[in-house]
Specification:
Elements (H helix, E strand, L loop, with lengths): L6 H27 L11 H33 L6 H40 L6 H31 L3 H4 L16 H31 L4 H52 L14 H29 L2 H8 L8 E12 L2 H6 L3 H21 L2 E7 L2 E6 L8 H25 L7 E16 L4 E6 L1 H15 L4 E4 H4 L8 E3 L14 E4 L1
Parallel strand pairs: 4-6
Antiparallel strand pairs: 1-3, 1-4, 2-3, 4-5, 6-8, 7-8
Helix pairs in contact: 1-2, 1-4, 2-3, 3-4, 4-7, 6-7, 7-8, 8-9, 11-12
């Protein structure tokens, strides 16, 4: 994963902008809303200088602490090696970044309220009543500080969410302990209270201060006070609308953006792409849903991997039937056509060919035979030595299984001829095989021991198909079929009747046919 930009720089910018915004709000509050707290209608130069110095000092102290606190995150982002303990610290602090900056900002504004409301007036020799001090602290800490803390928290969270995946590539945010879990309901309730309570509090202060100013005022002064209400109300309306819109955007983005990412990840899964994941960027309910989705996706990937791997040990057809629960483990009687294909002169070839080359060339041969069987809806049950056993009509039943088996044998012959042409071009000897086919009722099911099962066929038709394959050597034929298979074929498949023969294990003679 690419390294994230230096977090300290981005967070320092958010903190600076937020505190400047708070300073503007504090200035406007005491110059427009609660003007009675201001010492004079005009701002003196020394007040500006002192305020800037105090503001700079508070920002510097907060920046020093936050930089030290964020230093492990910056080192992790630069690719420096970290110990296991340091990685745990980094993961926890990565989730606490918005809370840290908001807490530092709130602490700074509490100090600012005490400094401007109590300490600074007393240091300048001014007389401060408890009510005036409380209003100064309220305007500085609650009004300006509340706006600042809210902006810094949500702005930091918005920016920081894009960096969280670097620290949590697996998306396991909720595995980190001792971090706040800000629920969506709590988040929305807090924003609603800020939008609703703060404006009401400001309006209450405005009404109270204007009422006090009207007491004992002469008609001209009272008219001026009432006339100034228009500007104040306009300011409050504009500030309230901006705050409501800004907080609503932050709140909507904090909920809608993760849900949109989750929706996009679900759409990828719907298209069959299981290699993605939903970004997990919060520890709330939406983050929990995203983590649960990723766990489900991991389960789907593991199942797909098992399914794919399983399909290498058994055929995909059998695999799908087993996974769908359509193969009865206790077995069932099925009418099917069995095909056996055996290589000729296998032992001499093995003895004169290097083992590694034998394996390579056998795999090439079996690949061609397997593809021919699959092309006609057949199933390769097993490969033993140089022999292939295949079935048509099981486990998935088909009406024309006998014809499909014969057509598969014809394609096996064509593929073997093409393979031999390539072998001849490479100076290798040709391969020959014999194919025997028989149709009958067999017992099909999962057969084996307690630790290993395989889909297999049991019954006399299986033995007879193997015996017919052995007869290809006697008749010097490539493909032989039984009478039971021949009667199920269409007229377009040409066969030649051969003399009836007796095979091992059967008292009656067997009628066999050569496929042209």
């Amino acid at each position: 994963m690419a390294q994230p930009p230096n977090p300290a720089r981005a967070l320092r910018g958010i903190s600076t902008i937020g505190n400047l915004l708070g300073a503007i709000v504090a200035f406007l509050h005491f110059r427009v809303v609660d003007r009675a707290v201001a010492s004079s209608p005009r701002v003196a130069i020394h007040e500006i200088v002192v305020s800037v110095l105090i503001f700079a000092a508070l920002v510097w102290i907060g920046s020093r602490y936050s930089n030290r606190w964020i230093d492990p995150l910056a080192r992790a982002g630069s690719g420096q090696p970290l110990s296991e303990r340091e990685r745990a610290v980094v993961r926890r602090r990565a989730l606490l970044v918005p809370y840290l900056l908001a807490s530092l900002s709130f602490s700074g504004w509490v100090l600012a309220g005490l400094i401007w409301g109590v300490a600074l007036p007393l240091a300048m020799g001014a007389t401060v009543s408890p009510l005036q001090a409380a209003r100064q602290v309220f305007g500085t800490t609650v009004i300006a500080g509340g706006v600042t803390v809210t902006f810094i928290f949500f702005a930091t969270e918005h920016v920081w969410r894009r960096r969280l995946p670097f620290f949590f590539p697996e998306g396991d945010l909720r595995a980190v302990r001792r971090v706040p879990r800000l629920a969506v309901r709590t988040r929305l309730l807090a924003i609603l209270l800020l939008i609703g309570v703060v404006p009401l509090a400001v309006l209450g202060i405005l009404a109270y201060t204007r009422a006090l100013a009207l007491l004992g005022a002469d008609p001209a002064t009272a008219a001026g006070i009432v006339g100034g209400l228009g500007t104040t109300i306009l300011y409050l309306l504009a500030a309230g609308v901006l705050a409501a819109v800004g907080l609503s955007i932050f709140a909507a983005d904090s909920v809608a953006a993760p849900l949109k990412d989750l929706e996009a990840a679900m759409a990828e899964v719907e298209r069959g792409r299981l290699d993605g994941r939903a970004p997990v960027v919060s520890t709330d309910e939406i983050g929990a849903v995203a983590e649960g989705f990723n766990r489900m996706l991991q389960g789907l990937r593991e199942r797909e991997m098992v399914k794919e791997t399983f399909g290498k040990y058994v055929t995909p057809e059998v695999r799908d039937e087993i996974l769908a629960g359509r193969i009865r483990g206790e077995g069932e009687l099925k009418e099917a056509t069995i095909l056996f294909a055996d290589l000729r002169d296998f032992t001499p070839w093995v003895e004169t060919t290097p083992p590694r080359q034998v394996v390579t060339e056998l795999n090439e041969y079996f690949t061609e035979m397997d593809e021919a069987v699959r092309a006609h809806r057949g199933l390769v049950l097993q490969i033993v030595g140089d022999e292939v056993e295949a079935v048509f009509g099981a486990p998935i039943p088909t009406e024309d299984h006998a014809e499909m088996a014969v057509r598969a044998a014809l394609e096996m012959r064509r593929r073997l001829a093409a393979l031999n042409a390539r072998r001849a071009a490479a100076g290798k000897p040709a391969l020959r095989n014999g194919i025997g086919i028989h149709t009958g009722t067999v017992l099909a099911g999962s057969i084996g021991g307690a630790a290993r099962l395989s889909y297999a066929l049991v019954g006399d038709p299986v033995n007879l198909a193997s015996r017919i394959q052995g007869l290809t050597k006697d008749f010097k034929a490539e493909i032989l079929i039984s009478e039971a298979t021949r009667v199920r074929l269409g007229a377009d498949i040409e066969v030649e009747e051969l003399p009836a023969v007796r095979v091992k294990g059967r008292a009656a003679e067997v009628n066999v046919y050569r496929v042209a």
